[in-house]
Amino acid sequence: MIKHAIKELAVSTLIETLKPYANDAKDALMNTARDTLESAITGRRSIEEWAEIAIKGVDKVKNKVVEQNGWKYIGGKLNFQLSETTSDKVVISYELYYQDSDKNWQKVSAESDMYASNFTLESLEDMKTNGKASYEVE
User: In this model, does residue 36 exceed pLDDT 60?
Assistant: First the structure.
């Protein structure tokens, strides 16, 4: 009877101790499952392949800014870089440069991240070696 009571106390203490970490573990598990599913659906792609996909969205932004503001598009970059804060992410960013009617420079930029597991191992190694991969936005 005492053995059973000690066991129950130990189990309830363990549960209370681990409870704050349950959501973190659940989130990590969900992220891993989502990452695995994304990789299974899309497969690993090279930086070049992801650049071809991303540039379509960047072009829409570029054209929308020109249309809405009347600015002249000058040039820009699409960048892929390993995250500095977490090893399982790749940061995708763009910087677009314009001149307004007064010839003042304007910059439009944004960034997002993607799981590194969506990139080929060769692409990840290239980013580790070179720091980042950049593509001109014409």
Answer: no
Residues contacting residue 61 through CB under 8 Å, at least 6 positions apart: 94, 96, 108, 110
- Judged on CB neighbours under 10 Å (0-12, 13-18, 19+), 67 is exposed
Nearest to 73 by CA among 60, 82, 63, 84: 63
Residue 50 near residue 92, CB atoms below 8 Å: yes
Question: pLDDT by residue (tens digit) across 80-119?
Answer: 999 888 888 999 999 999 999 999 999 998 888 889 999 9
Domain covering 44-138 in this structure, CATH number: 3.30.360
**Strand partners of residue 90:** 82, 114
What are the structural domain ranges in the chain? Answer: 1-43, 44-138
Q: Is 44 exposed, middle or buried (0-12, 13-18, 19+ CB in 10 A)?
A: middle
pTM, two decimals, is 0.65
